[in-house]
Amino acid sequence: MHIILGALGLIVTILILLNRLSEVGIDIGWLDPFKWNRRRKWRQAYYTNPVFDIDDPMKSTAGLMYTMAKCSGDISREEKACILSIFKEVFKLSDTEATELLSNCSFYIKDENQIKDNLEKFIKPSINNFADEQKKSAYALIEKVAFCEGNPNEKQKEFLAQIKNIFTPRKETFKKW
Known about the structure:
Layout: H1 2-24, H2 33-47, H3 57-70, H4 77-89, H5 95-108, H6 112-117, H7 119-127, H8 132-146, H9 154-167
Helix pairs in contact: 3-4, 3-5, 3-8, 4-5, 8-9
């Protein structure tokens, strides 16, 4: 019994001391594990690049098309016109919506190497939302952008190969039991 009373007295003493510290102005909120976890999740969400959170197949395809055009250096007038026509014809967007989507892509994708080097991370949130037909169509659209100004350069060929690896289903070999 005396051990239980000693433990209860210790707990009460600690609580009183923590209360006095908070009254004086010393913040002890960092001790709360639930608050720490919320802050940690918020910090991770805040500091991640918004490009890697795109879950809409149309927007991710638009980003890949923009990245493909950017692989050849600065985007030329022909590439820009090609991308805008794809947005209008295939995605069925109006002129202003197509222009907004292209400007959003240019705002979010400042460096094409960021997407090229982290392609799986970029496509991961949206890959499950793609239907099989959309995957084939997206690859065809990206390929159309690559061939917009003639034959693609080496960086564009590399990027096309990476996209093809992601969009084509992997054939798994099944063993008989």
